[in-house]
Amino acid sequence: MIISDWSDVPDRLATLSTHPHAGSIFGANEHQWRLEPPVTENELAELESQLGIDLPAEYRTFLLQVSRGGAGPAYGLFPLRRVEDRWRWEGDGASLTDLETLSRPFPHTEAFNPADGLPEPPDEDDFESEEQFNAAEDAYWEQHDTVVCAPEHCIGLLYLCHLGCAYREVLVISGPARGQMWADDTADDGGFRPLHEPDGSPTGFASWYRGWLKQAEEQIRS
């Protein structure tokens, strides 16, 4: 179900922000429970025209009714900003969103790991000198990063937040998994995986955001 009414969210966040234990929520000290202003219809139309996309409805209505960024899961939603007449998202990892290929389909529907098939890292015991081992290790990690961090893995993905230690969560903008939330765990060679609800259904933006909000409310009450 598409959530088109977000009118309850600002008040719920405001209530959370004044709770004495609000700072105990993971990431709250970063986003401080603050919301940036929502976008206007004209701004959103300009954004979508520049990028050649239609944003998934749940995120689109959030931008219009609630905020362009700020308080949200983990360290908060990357803010959407207009810089020199161009729209983009900003934050730690927001640059992983390739604005030029955001309209191209993300082809995956199941978890995948770009690191699969790579050889094991070199073993120091296999080398006669530390210099040889260091050279082999440098070459290995250069190959590893070329494969794992290849930009084609991020086609059609909008990076929305980071969880620390280079773990990030994304919204699929185009392709068969459009509208779903995925995790980018490549920082730990975990690859990419779709997020799911307790009943096994895919997690969309609304259930992702509202799930975080509900969990925060339950945590400070406990």
From TrEMBL:
<feature type="region of interest" description="Disordered">
    <location>
        <begin position="108"/>
        <end position="128"/>
    </location>
</feature>
<dbReference type="InterPro" id="IPR037883">
    <property type="entry name" value="Knr4/Smi1-like_sf"/>
</dbReference>
<dbReference type="InterPro" id="IPR018958">
    <property type="entry name" value="Knr4/Smi1-like_dom"/>
</dbReference>
<dbReference type="Pfam" id="PF09346">
    <property type="entry name" value="SMI1_KNR4"/>
</dbReference>
<feature type="domain" description="Knr4/Smi1-like">
    <location>
        <begin position="38"/>
        <end position="211"/>
    </location>
</feature>
<protein>
    <recommendedName>
        <fullName>Knr4/Smi1-like domain-containing protein</fullName>
    </recommendedName>
</protein>
